[in-house]
Queue: 2 jobs
Job 1
Amino acid sequence: MATRITPSQLDFTSIKQNLKAYFKDSGEFNDYNFEGSGLSAILDVLAYDTHMKALTANFSLNEAFLDTAQLRGSVVSHAKSLNYLPGSRNSARAVLDVTVIGASGIASYTLPKYTRFTTTTDGTTFSFYTLDEYKTDQAANFIFEDIDVYEGNLIKKRFIVDADVNDNPIYVIPDKNVYTDSINIVVRDGLRSNAITSYRLAKKVEDFALDQEIYFLNESANGFYEITFGDGKIGKVPAEGSIIEVTYLSSTANASNGASIFGTSTTLDSLSLSAATVTSAYGGAERESIESIRFNAPKGFASQDRAVTESDFVALIQNAVTYIESINVYGGQRANPPEYGKVYIAIKPIGADALNAAQKSQLLENTLNDRVILSITPELIDPTIQYLEISANIFYDDSKTTLTEQQLDTAVKNEITLFGTTNLLGFQSPFRLSSLTTAIDRSNVAILSSSASVKLQKRFIPILNTAARYDLEFTEAIAAPSTRDYILSSDEFEYTVDNVAYTCNLRNKTGTAQLEIYRKGVAGDIIVVDDAGSIDFITNIVSIIPFSPSSISDSINGIRVSVVPSNQNTINPDKNILLRFDEDNISVTATKDTV
């Protein structure tokens, strides 16, 4: 006779059925009808109570571990035990040159900290502030050069130190939109005192001496930020009765990204200021997500605030800034040629292809230079875009779609573009041809089958009317020469021979690695330059020499050179390579199935 309830079946229905089975097998309710009775209602209550307790226990156990926690407060708490501070909202940053209009003589001028600038984007006005003081004089033409301004509402909070309330009081900033890098804390001796002491965020080992003016910052369970001070053994204790003044920016995240026109009503000695934009607003971002914290906190702990291994660099940078979309770090021994003693860091920021000079300088100075070992030199490099050209062929059943052949072509092109944006997400994201054809087949019920081919594409902007050498390095092995098909092709360009300009293209000679420049004639192709360079199949470098076009049609992208890779199935980016579809070179041919 079964008298035990199975504890592994904890959904409501299973619990109720187990309770029924228990009562029936107990001997006292052998012939009892449990449906439509008062006992059925009691069983419902018991099953519901057991089910909710099981859920609560399961949720509580999940929240006890970083890997399974779902609440931000729980994830942040686990990260705190790993000495990891989740990234706050990031204020957009712009770089300006500010001129004092009408300044003359030998006077010098100081642009105060928290000088306000404004900009309008999509009908919304945003405030930007300086977080440092800047100086200029006649030698600088009365221009404050390369000043950094940060977006946000400037807010100041005051707290009174009361040691009687708590031996180690916590001061809470009731704002989830704090840009933590903008926090500035001073302690005033009294309400009317002019004697102030600046405190800085504790980051390094040397900050933990008993006489250091430091503060500690944590994110609380409710998303606000908590400020604490030392206890006299680690860090200095603010005196009782002193006033803590916390000034910070409350950020709107990425709302002001791209702003490029700034103005200010601030005057210096009654002289107005004009602002010229050096770098448009960039880098505004939401606070770090739960999944990002879950991923980065253990790596940040493993790095121990030093940069030695590749993963150390990744963890430090991702903890320092929140505007990174993708990052890859590799040692100089993998470079070509090898650069021993260097670490290369490739970063793709959100909304841009590369970091600007100000971002690189900020990362090196504030995050990397004082954390690397003496024999290592970190170098921030720009990503290299490896474009892919896609040609697809589809066979379709016209009885299963109302789309015309042209509409179906467009739909498949859109599907290919979507595949690129969702699958080629960053460094080390490979392209797989089989995945693309599967996506094409699934995009429309009328598509019976599909095939596709891929080419690698590089771009360069030549110096017009000047003979020069251009070396284009491809990320994958280039296909061997064919006696039937060309493995290299290019955009059109104008090439002048004997004072006559021809519309020409580049290609390889069939069956060889030699390049030639040709133009189309009435009776066939005419060779303009017989030896225009070569393909090195060992280094995958295409060398175009000597090359002196007189005109190109695209001054932004330059001339696009495409090659057939030896492996059509998989393209694996390495080092600082990012793969991206050339949307202008996606071709689709739809053929109606006749079977």
Note: Residues 1-5 have pLDDT under 50 and may be disordered.
Job 2
Amino acid sequence: MAEPQKTLKTLLIAVGAGLLAAALSYLYLENKKKELIASIAGPADEEVSVVVSAKDLSKGTILDESMLQLLEMPSRFVPDGVLTSDNYTKFLGRSISRNLQQGKPISSPDLEYLARDFSDVIKKERRGLTVSVDDLNSISGMMRPGNFIDIFVLVDPLKLGANQPKPGIKNIILPVLQDVRVLATGKDAYQSYLDQYYLPQGRSTDSFNNITLDVSPKEAALLSIAIDQGDLVAVLRNRDDRSMGDFSILSGADLVSAAIEAQRKAKLLAAAKASGATIDKDGNWVTADGKVISKDDIVISANGIVITKSGEILGSKNLKVDKDGNFVDKNGNVIAKDDVVVRPDGSIVSKDQIMKEAGYTKNENGDYVDKDGNIVKADDVKLLANGSIITKDGKTLSGPEVKVNASGCLIGEDGSVMTADGQLLQGVAVDEDDNVYGPDGKLITDCNLTVSSDGTVRDSSGNIVSEVTSEPLGTDDFSSEQLLDYVKENKVFSIKLILGGESEDGKAKTVDLPVETLLQKQKSSGE
């Protein structure tokens, strides 16, 4: 009996030990499971009391505690800058910068920056300099705080002492500062938080007479010198444009050069349009079939015809220029250069083409015949620079009306004056009685004017007509220096003023007025 009891006791001990081992193993594995889960999940989230709007809040509302409520939120879901129960009190009293919906967490960018005074708008190591502006320099009041501008100064080079760029130049313009931020227009200060939400800067008035700029100490000193030396010019720029101007000094000569270049481009564009070509962004000629002709290979002749250096006429599909300067059509026929004209639209036409458009035909002798059978001798027909065709006795056959005054001068309906062979004259004026005057104000009575080989305009006796030229503004042979010298002469010119609303026989009434050059005014005023 003793033996079975011993066996049973041993069995119970073994089962108990097994159960204990199983329990311990379970506890161990559960503990490891929790450790593994904890390692994957990371540290436990803390609950954060976040400030949210208790109701819908409109932009501009002043924040107070009654508008707020707290919301518990796991820390990992809390956005940066959100107001919490620990810090929200220091934001009370600020205005809301945008509309907020009820229940939305409020963050610091949703509230206007609270500056104690304007000096808080200026960054460390920067300075705020206020300068006076007028309606022009304030871009008609459209400039706003936060905009970027360039500043130039218009100054007499004599004030620059030894550093003046060139003797004899009255005024020059220099860049002073570029890409400068406007901190304030009048009393309206720049608010940086508005830029974060792409909102326009505030403006209490459309007019102001000063602006405050964000500059370094050295830039402040430089700008102060510029204010003392000359007149400031402010130029508004795109807020995202960081480019810089590529010039150091500009003068009156550069202004003339720009005008010459503008007229050259106009002629080039007109010729391109007439022939179906285009001008690319680099100024090169691109034909209709895509062929590119370098701008450096393009020449504009004195009469406005666009050609290549090899003699190809770019404004016409059917003409070329030979070594003698005459035009040759596609059939090899030579057309005298005096029988070709450039129209205002840039197209190039010959005398024959104009006469054909006017209803004339040519007979076997080369003379022109109108629809009634009347014959006009070819030698009696003259093509003028304005595109008109007239006879020797002054009758206009085609184109703008041309009349001959008592002295025999050819005058176009636009007031232009031409030589006897039809070339346009520069430097002359016409009064309401069709009298022609030179730059010196003297009446021109000998109108049998011609242009000699040296480019001078001469009367029938061979005398040079002073200060009159046949070359239009913008030709390669008429330099900006020549033009400036011409303007600086003490001459009195006459201009034709159109009186708006008044007419005679259906034509606008005009009156001629004398115009003094700037140099004369300076001398007369003692400057």
Note: The first helix runs from residue 2 to 41.
